[in-house]
Amino acid sequence: MSEDKKNKNHPDNDQDMMKLVDNLNRKEDVNLNRRAFLKASFGTTVALGLATTPFGVMSAIGNDKEDAERIEIATADELAVGEAKNFNYPTEDEPAVLVRTPDDQYVAYNNKCTHLQCPVFYEHKDNVLLCPCHKGYFDVNSGHPIAGPPQRELPKILLEVKDGKVFAVGREYRHG
Ligand code: FES
Asked: How much of the chain, in percent, has pLDDT values that exceed 90?
């Protein structure tokens, strides 16, 4: 018989194992683990609550303003009343449309349709933003969907007109 097998079957080894098991205070271990788990859970809940509070407040008031770079997108006289111009904002991958409305206001929106992302165009004739893919219509003054499949507003680009220039200064997501 090998030395290993001898040791495994030796009664002293069994005794040692039993002592080891007896030495483990299982109740204390379980309590310690439960306490640690509850502390960790509480900490995580508080951290998540604090981290998401601003989003909850934003969503409760219906606005989700995004700080973005201020960039010049047009000169004030570049567009005649009733004309539109495409630009990208806040990044080069996010197309947008600037409209000088018939009542001489500047408005701008990201122009990916909120239905299935087709580009939205300004229709001067009807003074609406139109998505030709499935005939989705958006109100030019608010960006709200008014007809067709889209259910959500277009993200609004916040503008500032100063010194004969039109600047994009931020973006606002509206919910509902
Ligand atoms: S993608 Fe615009 S209406 Fe469908």
From this structure: 57
- pLDDT tens digit string along 134-165? 999 999 999 999 999 999 999 999 999 999 99
90: cis peptide before it, omega within 30°?
A: yes
> What pTM was estimated for this model as a whole?
0.65
- Distances in Å between the Cα of 147 and the Cα atoms of 120, 135, 163 are 13, 8, 37
Q: Among residues 73, 43, 34, 48, which one has the least CA distance to residue 157? A: 73
64-174, which class in CATH? Answer: mainly beta
Which atom of ligand 1 has the smallest separation from the CA of 120? Answer: 2
Q: Which residue, among 75, 76, 74, 55, has the nearest Cα to 66 in the 3D structure?
A: 55
Averaged pLDDT for residues 39-67: 56
Q: Where are the domains positioned within the chain?
A: 3-61, 64-174
C-beta 118 within 6 A of ligand 1 = yes
Residue type at position 76: A
Phi, psi of 138 (to 5 degrees): -125, 145
Among candidate residues 32, 46, 11, 62, the one with its CA nearest the CA of residue 175: 62
Structure tokens at 16: 């040692």
Question: Could you report how far apart the first and last alpha carbons of the chain are, in Å?
Answer: 80
Give the distance (Å) from ligand 1 centre to CA of residue 120: 8
CB 154 near ligand 1, within 6 Å: no
